[in-house]
Write a structure and sequence with these properties.
107 residues; OB fold (Dihydrolipoamide Acetyltransferase, E2P); 1 helix
Length: 107
């Protein structure tokens, strides 16, 4: 009986650890992009937060296309609504989902 209780507790702890390490989605508006430091500052419901972008971060358009420009993409500007997929460490960005490009009114 004790052995089953201990096994159950171990399984519960492992499941809790995996849940904490899982990726999460954050929606917000871009406040600032620092290309040199590879940091994106976003205004979320919880306030301003800074997230680190690395070489593995994917920049995806609204239709699923990958942006080759990365952090230098012209859609990643102050005021843009984006969705970030954050790694389990709550700092590193795995994916940034970019908005549609604004169309010129003159064209």
């Amino acid at each position: 009986m004790l052995r089953q209780a201990m096994a159950g507790a171990v399984v519960l702890l492992l499941a809790a650890g995996l849940a904490l390490a899982a990726d999460k989605e954050v929606k917000g508006k871009v406040v600032k992009v620092d290309v040199k430091k590879k940091v994106v500052t976003v205004q979320t419901d919880d306030g301003k937060k800074e997230y680190t972008v690395n070489d593995d971060t994917k920049f995806l358009g609204p239709k699923g296309g990958v942006s080759d420009a990365g952090i230098k993409d012209d859609r990643l500007v102050a005021g843009a609504e984006i969705t970030l997929v954050i790694a389990g460490n709550n700092r590193t960005v795995r994916e940034i989902h970019l908005p549609e490009r604004k169309r010129d009114k003159d064209k």
